[in-house]
Amino acid sequence: MSRPAAPRVTIRDVAAAAGVSVTTVSHSLNGKGAVDPATRARVKQVAAQLGYRASRAAQALRAGRSGTIAFVIPSVGAVAEEREMLSLDYYMQLASAAARVAFTRRHPLLLPPPIETLDDLRELGVDGAILCDPARDDPRIALFEELGLPIVTIERDLGRPDHRWYVEGDNRGNMRLLLDHVAAAGGRRIALLSADSTWSWSADNEQAYRAWCEEHERTPIVEPTSLRHLETSAYDRACALLDRPDRPDAIIALAERYATGVVRAARERGLRIPQDLLVAGGIDSHQAAEGDPPITAIDLQPELQGAAAAALLVALTEGERPEAPRIVPSRLRVRASTQRT
Amino acid sequence: MSRPAAPRVTIRDVAAAAGVSVTTVSHSLNGKGAVDPATRARVKQVAAQLGYRASRAAQALRAGRSGTIAFVIPSVGAVAEEREMLSLDYYMQLASAAARVAFTRRHPLLLPPPIETLDDLRELGVDGAILCDPARDDPRIALFEELGLPIVTIERDLGRPDHRWYVEGDNRGNMRLLLDHVAAAGGRRIALLSADSTWSWSADNEQAYRAWCEEHERTPIVEPTSLRHLETSAYDRACALLDRPDRPDAIIALAERYATGVVRAARERGLRIPQDLLVAGGIDSHQAAEGDPPITAIDLQPELQGAAAAALLVALTEGERPEAPRIVPSRLRVRASTQRT
């Protein structure tokens, strides 16, 4: 490992030149602690004269500040299974949008490996995090809070009703929109492949589905489906649904990739989509758009959600108190899977 | 900023307990420097007993090692324009694949802001980088080399013929495949919207295009197109091409989003695709797949390229000497834009 070409000015050099302690220099430069304005000004001037530039690594070590923002995907179990989340359109579009905002504000965006302990988190030396789809009482939020690091969630932690730093779509409204659309398309027995999780997104959707069924005097048909091995899990649940005597004539496949499993199950049973079975997705993806048939789905507009979350987090790391939560508009993408022509 | 709950075991504690120098501990634990095996083993044992865990930030500060891998997008000018790169399917799919590999190997993947100086790079405290589409003599590679950090490029730096740590597709073969396909589809005057850059990908494609034209005794029609504001730039160049007296009957739009600009220019002129004009893309994207019409394109399989680059870099950061370069297979995706039925 070669060393930097020139020895860099250290915080100690600045302290010596300014005749103050290293702590005072640190506080003066990162705007923390109680330092009288005159001293702070002098320290800043000396630091500038010496060409002192705090290294991010040094900052990270000293005060947990690195300017880096972590983008954390949902924890759904083993690493091998968690990798699947990293391959989903929704999270990658969120990450891409967050990276664009961070990039413009000159903050690095970090995609970390699983964070399980305080050490894991300390070692990342990040300034804060965007956490996607927190579980109820997500332990990772507690870790960030223990280190005093701001965290913005996409969707809410149902165990933390007071945490208002989140971004989400109008999940209940979206589910009603989807149900009205599927019903208008001819769906009479509309089943829901719900996402078996404690995520607010899953809860909001299932709640709205049940409320809608009650209002429309329909019997809810809910199949909780695993968030691991999405396609296969959805295929299994869809098979169970389609082999029932009172077979549903419409299935709402909540999570990304669920629809693909449903289509497979329907095909094997000689059911045509949309003629014999209407299929709609709770979250859009390129797989849905490009599928055969293309699948009607809710587009949560992750590019807007990710940008809003990054802007919110950057503001928090810079000590502002921005407006929150932020509800991002969604879109219903109508495609062949619900169009009987 | 709250402090870590418990004081952590430091490298000094380990040095004291093992009766060796801090440097020896450092070298023993990160496998560097000359330490005799017995000492290395003892240090590791002591470190384990004390529950010592090197903090990534400390490592970054001490030796520029953080376990973090940077994923660096092409530099195409101002930050505002560079952001466009971060929104392209190709780079986001590369990043996603690299993140999955890094995640599994427990390395964080960093999407940094623009890297212009050694300080920028030092502050990131990364272990190495994957750099996409380097320009000829890309200055960022020099920065990494100055800090002795390994760098794997996706595509090659044409100014560094000796740098063999790269991953790429068979660009020349892909262009020939595309040209043969477009010619078989009826293209007689096949024009190329080339990407105006010093990237090896651009050079390989243009070279293969010219060679193919010569072999087939056709006059090459090349319109160098900017990599900034991709759609608009391609639209402008396509307008120029389509208003020529000897209007081409086929256009190969090399870069992502170019095809969209070509389609717009053709529409405005009442030209039908594929009947009056064949359109094909040099790189696939969801925009191409979902476009109206869907566009035939070369799929460089970024998910394979990104995984290969990450595996290569991780091996290098761990001191191995893996096989390189790695040529990743590509696929021709035939769609309506070149199918006259």
UniProtKB/TrEMBL annotation, chains A, B:
Position of the signal peptide: none
UniProt keyword annotation of ATP-binding present: no
HTH lacI-type domain mapped to chain residues: 9-63
Keywords: DNA-binding, Transcription, Transcription regulation
PROSITE patterns: HTH_LACI_2
Cited CDD domains: HTH_LacI
Pfam entry (one): LacI
GO terms assigned for molecular function: DNA-binding transcription factor activity; transcription cis-regulatory region binding
UniProt xrefs under PANTHER family: LACI-RELATED TRANSCRIPTIONAL REPRESSOR, LACTOSE OPERON REPRESSOR
Name of the protein described by the UniProt record: Transcriptional regulator, LacI family
